[in-house]
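Figure caption, in words: inputs first, then the predicted bound structure.
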Amino acid sequence: MIFYKTNEEIELMRQSNMLVSRTLAHVGELLKVGVSPKNIDKSAEQFIRDHGGIPGFKGYRGFPSTLCMSTNDRVVHGIPDDRPYQDGDIVSVDCGVILNEFYGDAAYTFSFKGVAKETMTLLKITKESLQKGIDNAIVGNRIGDISNAIQQYCEKEHGFGIVRELVGHGVGRSLHEEPEVPNFGLRGRGVMLKEGMVLAIEPMVNLGNKAVKQLKDGWTIVTRDSKPSAHFEHSVAIKSEGPDILSNHEIIEDSIKKNEDLVIISNIF
Ligand code: MG
Ligand code: MG
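Bound structure (magnesium ion present):
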């Protein structure tokens, strides 16, 4: 069943998603060569709790940490470990919180210095595809219009591989609500978009082939060809006046600009 949110509930969800975004901006300050994902995860948990939130992923179906940190060929659901970051890494950081009984959910893929140009192109195109999906998140459209816009841009126009096994989703009092929001599909198909829906739209796009597998830890998803993968996510409310993005990537990019070890995507091109 789809839960439609009132404007008041959407404002509460904006607060949840802004805490997610501020946490990701905090991560953008901490991502340094030599620092481990585990250390950053600890700091992110403290940051969320200091701001009155509860980590949304920790304990969710047994997930062990606050952040999903997925480096290079890891697509999503990476468990923060002790391997220190190095130049040439990209890392998708996915964060969820609970605040005011509502989940926030957003993700950003960070880039260290020295990342191959084709990988930077992957990041740029994946981020742009998220916006193309959002542009189609309008009342009267269908889920397939969002899905198709993302697939068309990444696969048809740029030759990247869209992950099939994992999809976006409704979000609200539960982390994963109906409907599913695939990053592939046909225009005009699927559930009709109506005012009050809140969708987590999250293209997961591979540099090479679309095929993925799960590691033995039961969580981490990696590309089968070991090539890099990118992931960007916003939580978006469907409103009569158009899509309302509840999370915020700009504040994350503000902290990237101040971090000498990271490269901002737009500066590469
Ligand atoms: Mg997420
Ligand atoms: Mg999500």
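The first strand starts at residue 54 and ends at 55.
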